[in-house]
Write a sequence for this structure.
């Protein structure tokens, strides 16, 4: 530690450059992680907010709620732990604001989803012509009381709710019967899906299939591809940062080998030199991570709400720890050279 | 009993046709308070001798004894420890750690070997004798060559070793400085009661020596 601190103190510019590089790498990884999580949440927030574990769809729907239609017989008998959902893609329009592509979710007001829907402002849906919309519509300029049209039917926004997004589109919640109207199927199917909380005793019905919540999420169009892309990017960045940090620390250490040979001549044990090398790596990487954390925190405060970023402290801490471990592995590479330093090399020719 | 003895040391490098015997039955003794000078032409085996004497290389045969401790059959760690406490090296290029101030060069020794080093007063005394007492907060790059060399000498003295081994200490110096360094090393031997061993091909140092040895093709002979 003594040698590491003294060297960092003397070589301020050199250490500063390495720390700056680690700050940038860490910042990049933190931001990518937050973007990945933000995007993932825009896909899954609504589904997760319902508190369900299973979903029943028409078995010809390929696990796609929008392609699923359930008849009264397929819905069967529901318990208090089941809820009906009618989902359809729609466009929210009004004379004063720009159009917003959205997803309409029809709910029965007595079901648990409608009852426990968290409101940011306004009140719950109380009639066929009322909607509770995701706050994304508020950001787009819509207000409580705004008159909007969906498929040429007029509605009033009576409430806003947070984090109501599915597949990156904002949700407008309304009555289940409105779903039938929007779909133009006033007779026939009564819902897209039955969703169930843990402990539901609902019996399976013919022509339907029940899936775990995660299966539904994984099958959301593009979701798995996006998540895989981000995870791969972050994984590659981790490996690349390992290589970059390893190369820098290696060069730093190689430059000191003649000095280390002198210390070995003087009887300073190899252990002290190895400790100095490792301590230096840890100090530089930790300072870099602290800087990256500060930048990320600043970004989290400054970023507009419309940018889909989610800053999850445990996840970022895990990523930071991963980076630290990678850097330590990188810092261990020059140890071999330190151990092999030949003191004889400094005794005159 | 002498504080430092090299007995029947042979050193062979390589095998078969590449086999060279660099040292032939070398015997050497150094007493505290004396400056021994080992002279010899290039390639005669001076550096090899110093490397073995300093415990950096185990000879093919023979022994090195420091203060009654047989250096040559110690493990690597014990050799490090013995070197740290009993042998002060003064190297050709002064080889101070560039990122430690003069004061920190001594502090590093304290970190590794907390006991048996010079007391602050004794160190102050050494620094004053060497004329470098005002340079404690400077980095090596801020010192002149001669100042660096004197710091290196103080650094070698700091663990209070029994023996000082110097490798070509005057290689880079001009005539007047050679005399100064020679006097300094001699003073070191007498005043600090060290066995000082200097290996060099610089005949200008002969005047400062108490005992003179000649190395020729790996054979060491005492001169009178
Ligand atoms: N590791 C080694 N392997 C083989 N031969 C070696 C090795 N080290 C030294 N030698 C040989 O031993 C001989 C003595 O070398 P040494 O370095 O001891 O000479 P020296 O007296 O210090 O010379 P100089 O005054 O030039 O420094 C040389 O012929 C050299 O080539
Ligand atoms: Mg030599």
């Amino acid at each position: 530690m003594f040698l590491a601190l003294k060297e960092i103190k003397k070589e301020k510019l050199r250490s500063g450059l390495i720390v700056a590089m680690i700050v940038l790498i860490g910042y990049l990884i933190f931001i990518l992680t937050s973007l990945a999580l933000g995007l993932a949440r825009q896909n899954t927030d609504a589904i997760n907010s319902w508190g369900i574990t299973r979903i029943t769809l028409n078995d010809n729907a390929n696990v796609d709620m929008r392609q699923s239609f359930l008849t009264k017989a397929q819905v069967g008998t529901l318990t208090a732990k089941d809820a009906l959902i009618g989902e359809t893609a729609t466009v929210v329009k009004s004379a004063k604001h720009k159009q917003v592509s959205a997803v309409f979710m029809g709910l029965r007001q007595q079901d648990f989803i409608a009852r426990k829907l968290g409101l940011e402002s306004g009140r719950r849906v109380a009639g066929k012509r009322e909607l509770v919309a995701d706050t994304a519509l508020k950001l787009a300029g819509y207000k409580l009381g705004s008159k909007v049209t969906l498929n040429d039917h007029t509605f009033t926004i009576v409430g806003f709710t947070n984090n109501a997004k599915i597949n990156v589109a904002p949700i407008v919640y309304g009555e289940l019967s409105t779903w039938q109207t929007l779909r133009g199927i006033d007779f026939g199917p009564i819902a897209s899906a039955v969703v169930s909380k843990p402990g539901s005793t609902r019996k399976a019905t013919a022509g339907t299939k029940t899936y775990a919540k995660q299966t539904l999420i994984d099958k959301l169009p593009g979701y798995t591809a996006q998540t895989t892309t981000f995870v791969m990017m972050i994984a590659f960045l981790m490996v690349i940062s390992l290589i970059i940090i390893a190369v820098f620390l290696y060069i730093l250490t190689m430059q000191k080998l003649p000095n280390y040979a002198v210390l070995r001549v003087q009887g300073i044990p190899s252990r002290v030199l190895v400790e100095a090398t490792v301590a230096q790596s840890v100090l530089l990487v930790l300072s870099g991570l602290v800087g990256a954390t500060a930048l990320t925190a600043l970004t989290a405060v400054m970023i507009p709400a419309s940018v889909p970023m989610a800053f999850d402290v445990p996840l970022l801490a895990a990523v930071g720890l991963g980076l630290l471990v990678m850097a330590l592995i990188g810092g261990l590479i020059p140890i071999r050279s330190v151990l092999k330093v030949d003191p004889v090399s400094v005794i005159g020719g | 009993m002498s504080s430092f003895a090299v007995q029947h040391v042979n050193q062979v490098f390589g095998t078969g046709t590449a086999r060279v015997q660099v040292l032939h039955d070398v015997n050497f003794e150094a007493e505290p308070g004396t400056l021994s000078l080992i002279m010899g032409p290039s390639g005669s085996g001076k550096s090899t001798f110093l490397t073995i004497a300093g415990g950096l290389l185990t000879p093919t045969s023979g022994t090195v004894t420091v203060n009654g401790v047989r250096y040559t059959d110690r493990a690597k760690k014990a050799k490090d420890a013995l070197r740290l406490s009993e042998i002060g090296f003064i190297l050709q290029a002064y080889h101070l750690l560039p990122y430690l101030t003069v004061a920190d060069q001594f502090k590093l020794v304290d970190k590794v070997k907390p006991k048996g080093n010079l007391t602050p007063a004794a160190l102050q005394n050494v620094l004053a004798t060497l004329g470098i007492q005002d340079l404690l907060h400077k980095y090596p790059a801020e010192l002149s060559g001669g100042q660096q060399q004197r710091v290196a000498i103080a650094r070698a003295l700091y663990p209070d070793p029994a023996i000082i081994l110097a490798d070509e200490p005057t290689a880079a110096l001009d005539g007047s400085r050679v005399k100064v360094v020679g006097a300094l090393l001699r003073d070191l031997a007498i005043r600090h009661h060290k066995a000082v061993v200097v290996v060099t091909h610089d005949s200008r140092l002969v005047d400062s020596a108490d005992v003179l040895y000649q190395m020729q093709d790996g054979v060491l002979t005492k001169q009178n």
